[in-house]
Design brief:
Elements (H helix, E strand, L loop, with lengths): L2 H14 L10 H15 L5 H9 L3 E3 L2 E3 L15 H8 L1 H4 L3 E6 L3 E6 L4 E6 L5 E5 L2 H13 L5 H37 L5 H24 L1
Antiparallel strand pairs: 1-2, 2-3, 3-4, 4-5, 5-6
Length: about 220
């Protein structure tokens, strides 16, 4: 599973910040949770998510949350539970076809029972925004781009090219300004007035002549 390498990076960031890494729930407890949910709510948690709960019992990092198992009352629960959150959101009442697995600042991440697809839904109206190939594709995309905020090499190269082009354009403008300043200094040293000054002086007699002709016509 490709997403596991990004999950390791997330855990490393957690440890670097002085926190515990995200750890999985024992397999027997995950299976017991699965059976309990199916019996009480008639909901079958997808196998991919059960495997994730074995590896990491939920995740909360950089504004992204994936729900954990619902712990017993006496157990401390740092990350929201899967079923309790769906009940709180009202997913089962609005549309029983979805099981919300987590969220980010942009989307709800969900499993669609009829198609067995993993989706990103609009946070307001639960409309489908993105369809992922599978669970691994969803987790890889979310962990890589939203949690770790990584950039692909191609995108990074494009940004570097844009930056280089901007720098080159600025250098060309700067070089032209320097050449113009040097030329004006040389003209002044030779005792010649810069072209701009000559042009203005040339315009003045022409303007006077135009005014004179205008006055004569009025008379």
């Amino acid at each position: 599973m490709k997403y596991l390498e990004y999950l390791e990076m997330v855990n490393q960031e957690e440890m670097d910040a002085g926190f515990e890494p995200f750890r999985g729930r024992p397999k027997e407890k995950v299976l017991a949770y699965r059976d309990q949910v199916k019996e009480k709510y008639g909901i079958e948690i997808p196998e991919d998510y059960l495997e994730f709960l074995n590896i990491a019992d939920g995740l909360a990092h950089n504004g992204v949350v994936f729900f954990s198992t619902d712990h017993e009352k006496e157990e401390f629960q740092a990350i929201p539970g899967l079923i309790s959150e769906n009940l709180s959101i009202g997913t089962f009442e609005q549309n029983k076809d979805y099981l919300i697995l987590g969220y980010s600042n942009l989307f709800w991440y969900a499993y669609h029972f009829p198609t067995q697809k993993y989706l990103a839904l609009d946070e307001e109206d639960l409309q489908e925004v993105v369809e992922f190939k599978d669970f691994d594709d969803m987790m890889t995309s979310v962990l890589k781009y939203e949690v770790l905020e990584m950039i692909d090499e191609e995108e990074e190269e494009e940004e570097l090219v844009d930056e280089n082009e901007e720098e080159q354009a600025e250098e060309e403008i700067y070089s032209e300004e320097i050449v113009l300043e040097e030329w004006e200094e040389e003209e002044e040293e030779r005792g010649e007035e810069p072209r701009e000054t000559k042009a203005k002086e040339k315009e003045e007699p022409e303007n006077k002549e135009q005014k004179k002709n205008g006055n004569e016509k009025e008379n």
